[in-house]
Amino acid sequence: xxxxxxRTKLAAAAADAAAAAESSFSGDVNLDSIKGLFSVxxxxxxxxxxGSAKEDGTNLMLSFMxxxxxxxxxxxxxxxxxxxxxxxxxxxERQERALAALVYEKDQLDRELVQCREFELKYLKQLAGxxxxxxxxxxxxxxxxEALFVKYLNANVHDPKDKQNIIATLHQEITAxxxxxxxxKINESQLERIKKDLAINTSFLKSLPGxxxxxxxxxxxxxxxxxxxxxxxxxxxxxxxxTDRRHRLDLARSLSGPLYTLFAQLQHYLDRPAKLESxxxxxxxxxxxxxxSISPEDSTHSEVILHIPIPNILNTSTAPGQTKKVSIxxxxxxxxxxxxxFASGAKTALNQEIxxxxxxxxxxxxxxxxxxxxxxxxxxxxxxxxxTHKEQENKSLGVVLRALERRIRANxxxxxxxxxxxxxxxxxxxxxETPCRLVKFEAIEEGENSKKMSEKTYTVAFVPSxxxxxFIVSVCIHMARYPSVPPRWFLSGSHSSTANDCNVSDSPLxxxxxxxxxxxxxxDGLDELLQNNLSPIGNxxxxxxxxxxxxxxxxxxxxxxxxxxxxxxxxxxKGRDHAPIDTQK
Length: 585
Fold this sequence. Notes:
Main location: nucleus
Order of helices and strands: HHHHHHHHEEEEHHEEEEHHHEE
Strand order of the largest sheet: 1-2-3-4
Radius of gyration: 63 Å
Family: Belongs to the THOC5 family.
Helix content: 40-55%
Number of strands: 10
Number of domains: 4
Low-confidence stretches: 276-283, 499-507, 534-539, 570-585
Largest sheet: 4 strands, antiparallel
Mean pLDDT: 75
Keywords: Nucleus
Pfam family, one: FmiP_Thoc5
Strand content: 5-15%
Distance between the termini: 208 Å
Protein name: THO complex subunit 5
Number of helices: 13
Structural class: alpha+beta
């Protein structure tokens, strides 16, 4: 325990320090006072000595305590300032966000205001114009938008007092329009349902012809049997049964007048019951196998097509349904007011380019530009146009069809004969071999002539049996009118040559035998040729269509006979014209 005197001094010093601190705390703390305090402390440290060290230490302690108090006070004030600053920054940020929101709202309202000012009330204007109607004052098309709205709403659009009335009027109109729109949607749905039902029914109706065709095809044998078992004329023939004929008659309604006239005549003629041919005509008619068709409505040209079967001239076996047919197309050109006809579909079997030329004498019209086919007199006559020739003969549809049948058969026969001869093959007609060998059959190129386009001249070269001599003759064939115009053979100018004979271009000698043979095959002996020969098909009526072959065979036989006689030395030539003299007389 310290002496009493020492404790007394320490207590006095503490009291003085407390008083000094209290006195020092009473003033404001600032930088100058802090600097002054540090100066006092430093000066005391410098002047401190050993004698007064205790007292100086006490003063220093008091100064440090004062400095500590000031530090605490400054820290407390710093915390308070920092808190206030943080609160101020928070308030500032909140105010800035509020300001930005207000600015954005202001810009948005400005844009909406501009859009509202510039928005064109097209439908409202149309609605107002419809409601105001023609009874209003002025024309709705020329009224100003504001004036139109005032008339429609019966209120001032700029007066806030009329706002509720305007809104009520618009709501009422919107409700009415909504009801009408719902009714419209209901009606549209009903319309769609009706259209769907109509499409289903239409599809069913369109499928009926196909189904009927299937049923018709399945029952056709029974229908034909029933038709043929009835007395003649009481029921229509098989060609009048079925949906094809009805469809064809429906298409005929869209034809022009002349084409419809031609179609009606053809259809009526083909619908007639088949009749027996006359006794003098034993060739079977192909009228029952003929058929008619009409081009579809979407085709480029409206035309009537007559399908005629091509006869089987060689009696070759053909599968059912594979009979070849030639199609005769009839077209009407309103620009020229004519009907043209041309053939197609039988290029391999017929010379279809000239099939219809001169079907009747002098019926050879010229082609017309921008048309297909030729305007033959007979087809225009049948179409009711009466484009007749000055030497027009009475022609009925039956005459025309029979002429077409004969022309097709003759054309096919001629093409078959020419095809065989061009291959140097001579068909047999009487069951015995021809005494000659054909070595050449070629067409002679001639200049084009409108009157002679149907005529072609061929060079024929053949070699008799047991000989090396080659005989050359020529024949002129009217390609269109064969065989009504018989082929004309030219024999008087023929000549013979051998393999070693180089001077084949010399003029041949005149031969009365050849001249007589020429007259025989061209005119005098035609009937005899037909009586002494049989056609390959054994049909007497078609016999005349093989006349070209009969003429060639007769020429070969006669020349072979003449050649054999001359080889025996029984012929001499005398006179300037080299006329032959028969020494056997």
